[in-house]
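step: validate -> pass
step: tokenize input -> pass
step: predict -> running
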Amino acid sequence: MEKIKQFKVAVVQAGSEIMDKAKGVRKTISLLEEAAEQNAKIIVFPEAFIPAYPRGMSFGAVVGSRTDEGRKDFLNYWSNAITVPGPETEQIGKAIKQTGAYVVMGVIEKDSEYSQGTLYCTALFFGPNGELLGKHRKLKPTGSERLIWGEGDGSTLPVFDTPYGKIGSLICWENYMPLARAAMYAKGVQIYVAPTADARDSWLATMQHIAVEGRCFVLSCNQYMTKEMFPEDIASREEFKQLPNELSRGGSCVVDPLGNYIAQPVFGEERIIYADINLDKIAESQFDFDVVGHYARPDIFQLTVNEKRQDSVVWKEE
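step: predict -> pass
step: emit ->
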């Protein structure tokens, strides 16, 4: 595959249309069109962009009990999650076809194979023809996220070879899992996409570390969220009273393979961030460090990755 070494990427820092997947799709399409006008060839969206990262919501769950109000909120969240593939991915795919860009976007995916009762925090990968190339399900939800999202398995750890380099993604605090990062590096990831809900300074240091460690371009994408973005009909709205108005300050950025910002972190607003990529910078950076190549010691350290799909029920014929 012939590589295009210099191109533009777009990181979409925006807030969700919370608990409304139809509005979320429309906002996604509008943002795609805006990024395409700037000739972006790779466009990335935050974690859980459709229908929301439910920051500040407990869904009425405490150790040993759940509330009726929390169950109603979960039903609302579940109802606005999407199936993959499904009508929402088809709509988004049609819009992407008009942009000619590769797109990575965070969604909440509703299990469509078994009971439909489990939700996953998922990153979707689309090709420039609008085709859904694949997905990555978050391996380990963090803290209270475990109350509402299931865990992905090793069957959704893709890295896609494209004319703009090899594209892969880990979501939010998966990026603190060194073995998960090692798996991505071993697949040759060059455009490392990190959708997140973390806006702290420590996260930004992590993005620079990963770029240096993996000798890759890192595209970190977060939402900008305020309390007012949440609808009034949330049953457990009382929980929001003690929260600050700015729930997520953003901090999306793009980092080069030597850990330098080529798009500085942006705070306090919705904005599409653009950066120019030159893939030759990767080879230049690997001159003195290649974590899975000349800097590795497989005689001492080895990682085994299980990419087999894990099913809770396996049917065997007689």
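step: describe -> The mean pLDDT is 95.
step: cleanup -> pass
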